[in-house]
Recover the amino acids of this structure.
C-alpha cells in the first residue's frame, strides 16, 4: 500500500470521529432549532417570509466565511462571560464550527418542512378538525406524517450539506476530514487531498442512504425499517466517535498555520513535547490571524509566528525597529497586553520577498526592487491571499513606486507554480521557502529595508507562561534552526518527487539541529 | 313538540371581510330524530349552515345552540367530537388504515384499545364494510367503500347528531342509492338527528323528513317533501320540486307502456 495512504489511514479514526461528532451535533441542533421556526412559519403567514428569507440568506454567506465569522463573535462572548461569570469558554474549534454548520443545516430542513406542511390536502385538514382534533393533534397526527417524505428529503439534503461543509471547519481549528484536504493542498500531497474527499463523500452517502431507509420506513408504514435505519445511524455515530474519545486526552496543543513550514515546525514541537512524556496534539491549518487569537485565549498552547507579522498585525505598529530591538520590544508588549510569552527566535527568518524567474532577472538585469520598478509596468505580479492587504506591500509600492501591469492572487502553492509556468512574472515569495531554489527564482534585494524582519518566534499561551515541562521541551529549539536546513526541510515536503511527510521532514530537521 | 336539538337564531356569516354573505339573518330549529335535507344552488350558503352546527365555521352574529347549550360554551374540538360529520371530499386520512380512520374520534376521546377495536368492527358491520378491508389504506378502497368508512368514522363516537355535506356526490348512481338507503336506515335504527346537504333534489325527497331550500343565505322554503311536491308560492322552489315529480311520472309512464306492450 502507498505510504501516503497508510499515513492517511492512521489519522482516520481521529479525523472521522471528530467529523462525525461535529456533523451529527450540527444536524441535531439544526433540527431542534428548525422545528419551532417551522411551526411559527406555518401558523403565522406574516412571519413565514422573514423566516424563510433568513435561512436562505444564511445559505448565501460563503460557508468558509460563516465559519470564520463565528470565531471573533464567540471570542467576544467568551471575554464577556469571563468578565461576568469569571470563566470564559473555548472560542476556537468545535463551538464556532457547530454554530456555523447548524445555521447552514437549517435551510433545507425549514424550507422543505414548511412546503410539505403547507401542501397537505385542505380536505384532509378540514377532516382533522371535523373529527375533533385540536391544532396540536392535527399537526402531530395528520400534518407531520403526511408531510414526512418532503421533510425527510430536506433532512437528507441537509445531512449531505453539513457533512460536506464540515470539511471547512479545519481553518477555525476543528479537526475534521478537511484536515486531509487543507494540509494535502499545502504540501501538495494529492493522495491526502483525494483521501479526504473520498472519505467525506463516502460518509455523506452512507448517512444519506440510512436516512433514506428511515424515510422509506416512515412513508410505507414499516416502523421496523425506520427503526433499523435510525439504529444504524446511531450505531454509526457511536462507532465513529468512541475511538476519538478514547484517544488519550493530551496535555498540550500545538498550533500551526496553513503552510508546509508551519506543519513541519508543529510536528517538531509536538515531538519535543512528546519526548518529555506528555502527549501533545495539533491544531493545524489555522488562519493566520486566528492562530494568535487562539493562543492568546488559551485554545492552543504554543505555535510559531513571525516577528514582522506579529508586529504589524497583532501590535498594529507601522514603524520599524532594528531586529534585536524589535524582538525585545515585542516580548515586553505581548506579555503586557496579552500575557503571551515570546520564548525566543528559532534562528531563521521567513520574510515576504519579491522574487522573479532567474532567466528574466538576468536578461532584464534586475537585482533589486528598485531595478524592478522600472520594468513593473510590463510585468504581472502574483501574490498569496494576504499580501496585497498587508502594510509591507503598501510600503513597498509607495517607497519604490511599484505599478504592475496586473495583479493576481493564488493559494501559495499555486503562486509558485504560476511564476514557474510564466502566468505571472513576479511573486510575493517567502524567504525560507525551498521552492525559491527549486524553481530557480531570484529574491530581489530590498535596499531601503522597507520589509520588516520576519524572525520565526515561538509563542506560548498565557496559561503556559510558567509551565516548566513546555519550556524544557521547546527551549532547545531556540536559535537551533538556521535558514539553510529550514529551506531544505520545506523543499523535502513541497517537491514533487520523493516527497517527505511534514513529520519526516521534522525528524530530519531535528537531526540537523542536533536535537536527536 | 319536543325541544329542538339544534336551534339557530338570527345567524349571519360572511366571508372575505364581509364581501360575501353566506348566511343572512337565518333562523332554524330541528327537533330530535328528524332527517333534514338542505338543498339550494351553489353559493346559497347550505354548506356554511352545516358547518356552524359544529363550529367548523363561526357565525358573525346570532346564536347556535346544540342540545340546549350555546356552541361557544365549549372548545370547538370538544363539540366536534360529539357531532358526526361526513365530508364532501370524504377526507379520509390517507396515512391511517381504515380501522384507524374509523376509530379516530374514540381515540381522541381516550377510549381504551379494546373498546375501540370492538366499536370499529361493530361499525364495519353496520355500514356493510367487509372486515378484511379494515387493515387496508383508504387508497386501496373503491369510492363507495371509502364513503362507507366516512359514515362509519362520523358515527364512531356514538353522536346524537350526524351532519353530512353532499356525502354521495362523487358516487355512481347504484352505490349512491344503496348507501343513501342504508344511511336512512341507520338514522332510524340509531335514533339520530341527521342534517344532509345535497344538490340532488330527488335524493332529498326520497331520504328526508323535511327539506330546507336555501337561496342567498336565507331559507326560502321549509317543509315536508310531500308538502313541497304539492306546490309552493316561490317560483324557483316550485320549479326545483317539479323535477323529481316529472322524473317519477316519466318513469311510471315507461313502466305502464311496458306492461301494456
Amino acid at each position: 500500500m502507498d505510504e501516503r495512504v497508510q499515513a492517511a489511514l492512521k489519522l482516520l479514526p481521529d479525523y472521522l470521529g471528530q467529523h462525525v461528532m461535529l456533523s451529527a451535533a450540527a444536524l441535531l441542533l439544526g433540527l431542534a432549532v428548525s422545528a419551532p421556526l417551522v411551526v411559527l412559519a406555518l401558523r403565522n403567514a406574516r412571519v413565514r417570509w422573514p423566516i424563510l428569507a433568513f435561512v436562505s440568506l444564511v445559505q448565501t454567506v460563503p460557508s468558509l466565511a460563516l465559519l470564520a465569522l463565528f470565531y471573533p463573535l464567540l471570542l467576544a462572548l467568551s471575554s464577556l462571560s469571563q468578565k461576568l461569570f469569571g470563566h470564559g469558554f473555548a472560542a476556537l474549534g468545535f463551538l464556532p464550527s457547530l454554530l456555523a454548520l447548524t445555521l447552514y443545516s437549517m435551510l433545507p430542513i425549514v424550507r422543505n418542512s414548511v412546503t410539505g406542511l403547507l401542501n397537505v390536502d385542505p380536505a384532509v385538514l378540514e377532516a382533522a378538525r371535523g373529527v375533533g382534533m385540536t391544532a396540536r393533534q392535527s399537526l402531530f397526527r395528520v400534518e407531520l406524517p403526511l408531510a414526512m417524505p418532503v421533510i425527510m428529503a430536506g433532512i437528507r439534503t441537509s445531512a449531505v450539506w453539513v457533512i460536506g461543509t464540515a470539511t471547512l471547519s479545519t481553518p477555525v481549528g476543528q479537526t475534521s476530514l478537511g484536515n486531509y484536504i487543507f494540509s494535502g493542498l499545502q504540501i501538495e500531497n494529492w493522495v491526502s487531498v483525494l483521501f479526504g474527499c473520498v472519505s467525506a463523500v463516502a460518509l455523506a452517502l452512507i448517512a444519506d442512504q440510512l436516512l433514506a431507509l428511515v424515510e422509506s420506513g416512515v412513508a410505507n408504514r414499516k416502523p421496523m425499517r425506520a427503526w433499523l435505519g435510525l439504529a444504524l445511524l446511531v450505531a454509526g455515530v457511536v462507532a465513529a466517535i468512541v475511538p476519538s474519545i478514547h484517544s488519550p486526552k493530551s496535555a498540550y496543543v500545538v498550533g500551526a498555520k496553513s503552510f508546509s513550514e508551519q506543519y513541519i515546525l508543529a510536528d517538531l514541537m509536538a515531538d519535543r513535547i512528546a519526548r518529555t512524556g506528555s502527549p501533545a496534539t495539533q491544531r493545524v491549518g489555522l488562519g493566520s490571524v486566528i492562530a494568535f487569537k487562539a493562543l492568546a485565549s488559551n485554545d492552543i498552547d504554543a505555535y510559531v509566528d513571525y516577528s514582522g507579522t506579529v508586529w504589524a498585525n497583532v501590535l498594529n505598529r507601522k514603524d520599524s525597529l532594528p531586529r534585536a530591538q524589535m524582538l525585545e520590544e515585542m516580548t515586553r508588549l505581548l506579555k503586557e497586553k496579552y500575557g503571551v510569552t515570546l520564548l525566543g527566535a528559532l534562528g531563521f527568518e521567513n520574510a515576504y520577498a519579491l522574487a522573479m524567474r532567474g532567466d528574466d532577472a538576468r536578461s532584464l538585469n534586475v537585482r533589486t526592487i528598485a531595478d524592478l520598478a522600472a520594468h513593473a509596468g510590463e510585468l504581472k505580479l502574483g501574490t498569496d491571499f494576504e499580501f496585497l492587504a498587508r502594510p509591507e506591500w503598501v510600503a513597498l509600492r509607495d517607497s519604490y513606486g511599484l505599478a504592475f501591469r496586473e495583479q493576481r492572487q493564488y493559494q501559495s502553492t499555486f503562486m509558485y507554480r504560476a511564476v514557474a509556468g510564466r502566468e505571472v512574472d513576479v511573486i510575493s515569495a517567502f524567504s525560507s521557502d525551498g521552492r525559491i531554489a527549486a524553481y530557480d527564482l531570484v529574491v530581489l534585494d530590498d535596499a531601503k529595508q522597507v520589509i520588516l524582519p520576519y524572525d520565526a518566534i515561538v509563542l506560548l499561551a498565557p496559561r503556559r507562561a510558567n509551565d516548566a515541562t513546555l519550556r524544557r521541551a521547546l527551549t532547545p529549539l531556540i536559535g537551533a534552526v538556521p535558514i539553510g536546513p529550514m529551506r531544505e526541510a520545506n523543499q523535502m515536503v513541497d517537491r514533487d518527487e520523493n516527497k517527505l511527510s511534514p513529520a519526516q521532514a521534522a525528524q530530519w530537521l531535528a537531526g540537523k539541529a542536533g536535537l536527536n | 313538540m319536543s325541544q329542538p336539538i339544534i336551534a339557530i337564531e338570527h345567524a349571519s356569516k360572511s366571508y372575505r371581510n364581509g364581501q360575501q354573505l353566506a348566511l343572512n339573518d337565518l333562523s332554524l330549529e330541528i327537533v330530535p330524530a328528524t332527517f333534514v335535507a338542505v338543498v339550494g344552488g351553489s353559493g346559497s350558503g347550505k354548506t356554511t349552515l352545516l358547518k356552524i352546527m359544529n363550529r367548523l365555521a363561526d357565525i358573525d352574529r346570532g346564536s347556535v345552540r346544540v342540545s340546549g347549550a350555546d356552541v361557544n360554551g365549549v372548545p370547538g374540538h370538544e363539540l366536534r367530537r360529539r357531532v358526526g360529520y361526513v365530508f364532501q371530499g370524504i377526507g379520509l386520512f390517507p396515512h391511517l388504515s381504515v380501522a384507524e380512520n374509523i376509530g379516530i374520534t374514540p381515540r381522541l376521546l381516550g377510549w381504551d384499545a379494546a373498546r375501540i377495536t370492538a366499536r370499529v368492527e361493530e361499525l364495519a358491520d353496520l355500514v356493510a364494510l367487509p372486515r378484511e378491508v379494515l387493515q387496508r389504506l383508504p387508497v386501496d378502497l373503491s369510492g363507495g367503500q371509502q364513503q362507507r368508512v366516512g359514515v362509519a368514522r362520523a358515527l364512531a363516537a356514538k353522536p346524537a347528531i350526524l351532519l353530512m355535506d353532499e356525502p354521495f356526490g362523487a358516487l355512481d348512481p347504484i352505490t349512491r342509492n344503496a348507501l343513501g338507503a342504508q344511511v336512512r336506515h341507520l338514522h332510524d335504527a340509531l335514533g339520530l338527528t341527521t342534517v344532509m346537504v345535497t344538490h340532488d333534489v330527488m335524493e332529498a325527497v326520497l331520504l328526508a323528513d323535511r327539506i330546507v331550500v336555501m337561496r342567498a343565505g336565507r331559507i326560502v322554503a321549509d317543509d315536508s317533501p310531500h308538502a313541497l311536491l304539492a306546490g309552493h308560492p316561490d317560483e324557483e322552489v316550485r320549479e326545483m320540486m317539479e323535477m323529481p315529480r316529472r322524473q317519477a311520472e316519466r318513469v311510471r309512464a315507461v313502466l305502464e307502456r311496458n306492461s301494456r306492450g
Observations:
- The beta strands of chain B are 6-15, 20-30, 35-40, 61-66, 69-70, 83-86, 161-165, 193-197, 210-215, 218-223.
- Chain B has ten helices and ten strands.
- Chain B has one domain: 6-260.
